[in-house]
Amino acid sequence: MEAHFLGTAGGVPSPDRSLPCSALRVNGRTVLFDCGEGSQRQLMISSLSLMSVDVLLLSHHHGDHVTGIPGMLQTMGLFSRGRGLSIMGPAGTSELIGGMMSTYGEELFYGLEVRDLEDGDSFFFEHAQVTAVATEHSAPSLGYVVREPLRPGRFLPEKAKALGVPEGPLFSRLQRGEAVEAGGRRVGPDDVMGPPRPGRSMAYSGDTAPSGRFAAAADDVDLMVHEATFPAAMAHRAEESRHSTAAQAAAIARDAGAHFLVLNHISARVEDEAAHMREAAEVIGAARVAVARDFDRMSIHHRD
Length: 304
Ligand SMILES: [Zn+2]
Ligand SMILES: [Zn+2]
Known about the structure:
This protein is of the alpha/beta class. Helices cover 27% and strands 26% of the residues. The chain contains ten helices and 18 strands. Strand 3 (21-26) and strand 4 (29-33) form a beta hairpin. Helix 9 (246-256) packs parallel to helix 10 (273-284). The longest helix is centred in the first third of the chain and has 12 residues, at 93-104. The radius of gyration is 22 Å and the shape is globular. The two termini are 15 Å apart. The mean pLDDT is 95. Residues 10-11, 20, 62, 64-65, 207, 265 line the site of one zinc ion.
């Protein structure tokens, strides 16, 4: 899994930050989170291919998150895209995309599937489960949690030996998940494996005020991408507009037990990026947080 940050601004773009768009690569396929104006060009400049996008997930329908959609759909058509594209988002997404299609009069020669999601809805992208989580913004809004399935536990040779299995070919068979006969009894893989290990995982908050529901859904994720629109000095503005400060984002990541936090959706009002990061680091520790910049990418590895 690899996360790509293509547009890391909040509200308005700046020379350094494009409007919201992030991506997650899973097995060579791409799921896109939000599609602000200019996202297709950010994709082209990045190492990702526009045509590798199979799913677009919208956090909500504010302009900074959706204005890139018509252009992207049109370009995919002009590039003779063959396979279909799914767009999913909160209530009203079908209507939003339908309106865009009729306004721009585009004829697409590829399948477009559009679906409205509710809190708790989930689907599989490759082998990973993607779950929508209701968040707390000034419009119907969803965050998303992506989790690969549990992996088998580690093979424990000492346990196998204690059960009378000699080192050698029988070890290999147990590691492949087969049961074996040893010392007159059956030894199964479960007898000699440690507990299942978590698969890789990532959570994307979209725009939201601090949400306990999102923290709970993102329990123990490897990477949390959380909006941190405003600095602490503008906490009142964050509250009014249902956004988060850097420290609030960090508190959500801490509550979730997230292993790493990337601050995203950075307002042009954040003048000192280092100070913004310090505000989060005070809550979660400097080793566990970074501020997203356009074209950053981050590999998500298995923990063990
Ligand atoms: Zn926004
Ligand atoms: Zn918004």
